[in-house]
Amino acid sequence: MLRRFERLKSWEGVLLVVLIGIVIFNSSMTPHYLQIQNQVNLFQLNIEKIIIVLIMAFIIINAEIDLSVASVMALAGCVMAYLFEKGLPFGLCLFAGLLTGVLTGAFNGFMVSYVRLTSLVVTLSGLIGYRGLAHVLLENRSVGNFPEWFDRLGQQPLVGPFPLALIIFFVLLIIALIILQWSGAGRYVFVIGNNSEVARYSGVNVRRVKMILFIVSGLVSAFAGLLLAARLGSMRGDTAIGTELEVITMVLLGGVSIFGGTGSLYGVLLSILIILNLRNGMGLLNVPGENQTGVIGALLILSVLGPNIGRGVREAWNRRHVQHIRVGEEEKGG
Amino acid sequence: MEQLKQLKQYFRPEQLRELSLIVLIALIFLFFGSQIEGYFSPRIFNRVTSDVAIIAVVALGETLVLLTRNYDLSVGSIVGLTAFFVGKQLTAYPDMQPILAMLLAIGAGSCLGLINGLLVSYGRIPSIIVTLGTMAIYRATLVAYPGNKMVVINDLPGWITELGSRQLFSIGEFSIRPVVVGGLVMFIIFQFVTSYLRFGRRLYAIGSNPEAARIGGLPSHRIVLLAFILCGAIAGLAGFLYLVRYGNLNTAAANGMELKVIAAAVVGGISTNGGKGAIMGALLGALMINLLQQSLLRWLVISNFWVDALLGLLILIAVIIDSVIINRLSDLWNRQDQEINPVDEKKVIKEKKSHAA
């Protein structure tokens, strides 16, 4: 019983309390909030983001970052739409879209792990460049009229009230949980994030792990881009602009350190739920979109500031305590 | 050989990169000059210089923060918010003095920078998280600003339009506008600050090794805080320039500018790992990116949708050149430097003592 309380004191515990608070507040404000349809909608409206969040968690734990995800989404969607417009069979278009993701991911990964550039800069250039390529393909047109089954998959429920994308999200979530939390490969991700030099000397193939992560990130982003195309029913060059920031916010709020090496998917999952429910609640209260983002930004800062202040107070208290009982040792500076 | 050694003392590989940027800019200029009719016209000159002035000023502030191994992603929102705020104030009180409006913008910007800096240096939060958050918060503040969501140039006092289009002096038929002069003055001041003043050198010291700087007794917290405040203040000034340049604003003003600014700094050779680069580089980077952008828009051979794709490629190439060529060159330089002037240990110890005293 005591150990359970110990666990609640961790970051996940804080997130859980916040989540419960938000759910209680929301359900007291609007009766429709707890209906299954609203809950499914809340996932459905952000499904592409939260799918990318899963792989982004891996990458940030690995002490890298991928800013290009939103642009890869748009580029994959635009490649698919462009080829579709040219009259190629639709299956081939989808495949080309996914291939785009793999190629962009491999390019990013190569630059990061073999040319040894900073991932922030590489993916920043990707953020601008891939978006630019998407604009080159579709210029300022909007391409739609995809096959009927494709739109239906994106927009209608598949099993019961659940649409295809939501089912895929849960499957991916389970796979990610197994890999990151319970498998050896997941340990590698943590070890490299903690100290890639040590990992390299211990015989971990750091380059390969980073390469694989970036390729998967590209593939997942491309997949999310196709899902978005199915949900919206059309594709433009400027689709999904700015998504990367929200994805990164979700990961960081989940307790993953921006310097890598710490964090867990449980925390990330809780932070996804918090942000979705918070947005949904604010939406039901008619708060405009930009202000919702502002509230989430404040939440992000507070989520890191709170524990820091707590630690500072604890350290100060410990110092006084040590002085008080006059331990013979020299005082250690904090 | 003797001459080569002498050359090496006066000439660093970092300068090589600035020199190559200048050559590259000149090449771009000449190439598009031969391709586009009327390229050397005063109109395009004004366009490019005014745009460069704003981006370069923001990039200059961003450089101060980048040098300390921090990021400021909120500059776009700060520029937008201060421009909007000052525009609203000017609409409400049209008889405000121009200098007061500018100070208002700088003051507002430094307050926003202060918030960033306090959270980073005393709240001990990684700068990328802080500024990611404040980017959204400042933008939300702009949207939540009471009244209608537009600043319209017709409601602003006449001197804004006048200031935006007046020529201060002219070289031949090219007129130099006040916005450009403001940018240049800022550039000269901060080139001086970062190369000669103690504060500027400390930025480099903290950025190249924060731990060593802290142990060496530098007041890191205060210096980082000051860098963020300055960055905010400069972004505030850029907000004022933005208002003068465009006049009409909506809530998306300067949206996404932070990426362009960081791109300019990176192309100019300022390392995102801190401690490396010069203000001069930021200016050249901003100039290059803007020149390329404005030129490609007017070049009819390829569609202007290629601009961003090429920009991404440009950033990547700049970084690759940096890491592959420049870094190796500077390793070579440093090694040979030591051979030329072997470190005199007694002298070093003496210097250290005099520093400590």
Q: In brief, what are we looking at here?
A:
The complex is a heterodimer of chains A (334) and B (357). With 334 residues, chain A is mainly alpha-helical.
General description of the model:
The complex is a heterodimer of chains A (334) and B (357). Chain A has a two-stranded antiparallel ribbon with strand order 1-4. Chain A has a two-stranded antiparallel sheet with strand order 2-3. Chain A has two domains: 13-287, ABC transporter involved in vitamin B12 uptake, BtuC (Orthogonal Bundle), CATH 1.10.3470; 302-334. Chain A contains 15 helices and four strands. In chain A, 45% of the residues are buried. Chain A has helices at 2-8, 11-29, 36-44, 47-61, 69-85, 90-113, 119-138, 148-155, 164-182, 184-194, 196-201, 206-232, 243-253, 265-284, 289-325, and strands at 143-144, 157-159, 162-163, 234-235. With 334 residues, chain A is mainly alpha-helical. In chain A, helix 6 (90-113) packs antiparallel against helix 7, helix 8 (148-155) packs across helix 12 and helix 13 (243-253) packs across helix 14 (265-284). Chain B has a single domain (2-356), classed as ABC transporter involved in vitamin B12 uptake, BtuC (Orthogonal Bundle), CATH 1.10.3470. In chain B, 75% of the residues lie in helices and 2% in strands. Chain B contains 15 helices and two strands. Chain B has a two-stranded antiparallel ribbon.
Considering the chains and any ligands shown, give keywords for the structure.
heterodimer; A: 334 residues; mainly alpha; ABC transporter involved in vitamin B12 uptake, BtuC; 2 domains; two-stranded antiparallel sheet; two-stranded antiparallel ribbon; 15 helices; B: 357 residues
Count of discrete structural domains of chain A: 2
CATH class of chain B: Mainly Alpha
Major sheet summary line of chain A? 2 strands, antiparallel
Q: Strand order of the main beta sheet of chain B, please?
A: 1-2
Mean pLDDT of chain A: 87
Number of strands of chain B: 2
SSE run of chain A? HHHHHHHEHEEHHHHEHHH
- Derived from helix and strand composition plus strand pairing, the structural class of chain A reads mainly alpha
Number of domains of chain B: 1
Which geometry of chain B do the CA atoms define?
globular
Radius of gyration of chain B: 22 Å
The radius of gyration over CA of chain A amounts to 22 Å
Number of helices of chain A: 15
CATH topology of the largest domain in chain A: ABC transporter involved in vitamin B12 uptake, BtuC
Biggest sheet of chain B, in brief?
2 strands, antiparallel
Q: What is the H/E string of chain B?
A: HHHHHHHEEHHHHHHHH
